[in-house]
Each structure stands twice: as structure tokens, then as C-alpha cells.
Amino acid sequence: MDLLVPFDAVEPKTRLAPVLDADERSAFALAMLRDVLDALRRADREPTVLATAALDAVDATVVVDDRSLDAAVNDRLDGETAVVMADLPLIGPTTVADLFAPDADVVLAPGLGGGTNAFVARHPDFEVDYHGASIRDHRRIAREAGLDVAEVDSRRLATDVDEPADLAELLLHGEGRAVEWLADADVSLSIEGGRVGVERR
Amino acid sequence: MDLLVPFDAVEPKTRLAPVLDADERSAFALAMLRDVLDALRRADREPTVLATAALDAVDATVVVDDRSLDAAVNDRLDGETAVVMADLPLIGPTTVADLFAPDADVVLAPGLGGGTNAFVARHPDFEVDYHGASIRDHRRIAREAGLDVAEVDSRRLATDVDEPADLAELLLHGEGRAVEWLADADVSLSIEGGRVGVERR
Q1: I need a labelling partner for A80 at 20 to 30 A (CA). Which of A46, A123, A155, B52 fits?
Q2: Mind listing the pLDDT tens digit for each residue in A100-150?
Q3: Torsion angle, alpha carbons of B95, B100, B105, B111, to 10
Q4: b/e for A50-70, b at 16 or more Cβ within 10 A?
């Protein structure tokens, strides 16, 4: 089974701009990618990074495709293929095993907010559409193709890091390069009025 | 093992005020409570509702304790006790089984934002402190008492419904009374600029 990790190598994680500048966002995105690659390898999976531009800073096979995410992924869904997003620094080898465990044509891992953070497709008729609330589209696409679908119930797979509030989840539950990078950048948890956020010294 | 479901029967879910008025918040909170009680019973667990005021609208044993949540729960942690919050309408019997599965003194189910949405305590030395990022306090309390801790990785257990944005998760993934109540109240998903939220007609 092919295992792809899409990665925006040009301008990643723009929604973190309130906390990190452009160079920092690139470095942090790379730290998250490395955490994801580690988790996959520790689960005995061999990932290929599907990057929007050349990337020599990771120890993995990198394929460059500068088209849209939908086009780049759909072009590679001919055989059995899994896709795991690069901004899931909370996943570990157990989480990866949970993703591959269900014996279904399509296994979907919903992200918070309606995204699809990972999937396993064992049938060539599945295809992706990442716009909007993609988890609903992916359920529909699988159903219309007559495929059976399983969903993985994992907070770790559901937590993609896009916005400052998501950094709080990483600080609360993370271990690895990305959370160490945040600590080095003096990003820490803040608690105001019972709500958890982040602050930077 | 005792199984408690704390419930604010006086003024529940105030942070949903931007979408629901006070009577609606009470009705919706009750629909979520019933979904939670259903999930627990379908997993062959017998819950007791720990309510802040009398409540005759649910088909379960209700114990009234108008003290703070910490005081009311800690007073009842003498034997083996589990606590599951009443605002987790995404849980089902499988999720409940996952919560009780780990063989540890204390099993914690983190909520998004640092809360503790459910736990199983099999040792009387565990106690709760729900203020702030309680998952960190609960890890510390268990560690300082020399107890071994397991954590459950579940998006469904992690999704407590407190704010309008949380309603989107229920609309995306829910089934049962709470999501039906929302549909009847004309609350539906909205998608703006790739972000998922809710709107009310």
C-alpha cells in the first residue's frame, strides 16, 4: 500500500501568523512533518512526502507535485493508497495502527471542523474532494461508489494544527519535535476565564 | 462500579446563548443528557445523574447535590467510580467500552481545550479538580498518589458541546436526540471561507 503525506513546502500554516512569522511557520511545519513521518515509521509504514516544491530537509522519499491537493492526490489513488496529513503532530504508532485496523474499502479519520485528516483507500473508485466539510463529501463519494466505509474515532488523528488555538492541544498532549520547537519559541499555555489558549513571551 | 453523570439542572450551557435562548438551552442540554444515558446503558452500564437541582424529566436515578462540581464528585470517589459528562452527545456504546477497557488505576478521557470529559477511578486516592486545564491536574493528582494512568484517545469523548462551534461537530457526526433537536430548531451547518460553523434560520 502506498502511503502519502501531502506537504505545503511553499507557504505552510498561514493561519498561524498571529503567533509565528513566515520563517517560523516553515520551521514549525517541518517539525510537525517529521513527527508524522516518525509515527508512521514506528508503525512499520513507509511514507512518501507529496510536496508542492522541492524539499531536501526530510529523511524520506519526496515527490514534487505543484498542482492542487485534490489533483495531486486523485492522480495517485489507482491502487491501495493511504493519505495522512502532515499537520498531525499528536499521532503516534498506536494511532497509525488504529487507522489501518478496520477491514473496510475506505477508512476515514475525521478532523475537527469537518476535514478529513487521514484515510485508507483499498479500492480504486474512491477519490478525494478536500473543499468545505470534506468528511461529508468523502462519505458520499464512497457511498455512491458502493464502497463500505469505516471511521476511526481518534482525538489525536482529529487534531490538525492550523490555528493558534490548536497549538494549545499540542502543548497539552504532544511529545516530539513540534512541541519542543514550540517550547523553544517560548509559546506556552495560557488560561484565562477557564479557557485554554496560548501566549508567547 | 458507580457511574455518575453530573448535570447542571439550573442554568445549563450558557455559552450557547448566541444561538439558543435559556429555555432552548435547557431543552437541548436535556437532549444531550438523554443521549449520554442511552450510550451508557447500551454499553450495559447503569448511570446515576448527579444534578444541581431536582430533575424529573429523565428515566434514571437522580441524586441532587447543589455544591460545586468538585465537592459533589470528590464526596463520591470512595470506591470504584466513573464520571462521564452530560454534554458528550457523540458518544455511543463503543466509545463507552473504550473508556472502561484500559486496566489502569485511573483512565482519563481528555476533552478538547484541556478539560477532562470522563474518567474511571479504581482507587480511592484519586480526586478531581475541574478548574483550568483539568487534564493536567488530573495527571498530576494521579501521579502524586502513585497511581498508574491510561488515557483514551477518542474524538467522540473529547467533543463536549459548550459553544456554538461545537454544534458543528454534532451536526457533522451526531445521531440521536440532541442532533434531532438541533435540526428541529433549524440550526444547520454553514461553510464560509473553508471554515465550518453553524447558522440558524
Answers
A1: A155
A2: 999 999 999 999 999 999 999 999 999 999 988 999 999 999 999 999 999
A3: 20
A4: bbbeebeebebebeebeeebe
**Pairing relation of β-strands B116-121 and B81-84?**
antiparallel
> Is residue A85 within 8 Å of A33, Cβ to Cβ?
no
Q: What angle do CA A147, A149, A151 make, to 5 degrees?
A: 165
Residues of B in contact with A113 (CB under 8 A): 168-169, 195-196
- Reply yes or no on whether the pLDDT at A194 is more than 70: no
Residue B133 burial (10 A CB sphere; 0-12, 13-18, 19+): buried
Q: CA A132, CA A120: separation in Å to the nearest integer?
A: 20
| DSSP-derived pairing of the beta strands A149-151 and A195-200 | unpaired
Q: Looking at the predicted structure, is the pLDDT value of residue A193 above 90?
A: no
Rounded mean pLDDT, B132-142: 96
Could you give phi then psi for residue A170, rounded to 5 degrees? Answer: -65, -40
Contact criterion met (CB below 8 Å) for A20 and A5: no
The reply to whether ipTM tops 0.85 is: yes
**Minimal-distance CA residue of chain A relative to B95:** A153
Alpha carbons A3 and A47: distance in angstroms, whole number = 5
Q: Which of B155, B173, B179, B189 to mutate to test the interface with A (most CBs of A within 10 A)?
A: B155
Give the C-alpha distances (Å, rounded to integers) separating B132 from A195, B51, B76, B103, B163: 7, 22, 22, 27, 17
Q: Which three cell numbers stand for residue A146?
A: 458502493
CB of B179 less than 8 A from some CB of A: no
Measured between alpha carbons, how far is A17 from A28 in angstroms, rounded to an integer?
12
User: A133 vs B189: CB contact, 8 Å cut-off?
Assistant: yes
- Report CB contact under 8 Å: A110, B172: yes
Identify whether the C-beta of residue B48 lies closer than 8 Å to the C-beta of residue B198.
Answer: no
pTM higher than 0.90 for the full model?
yes
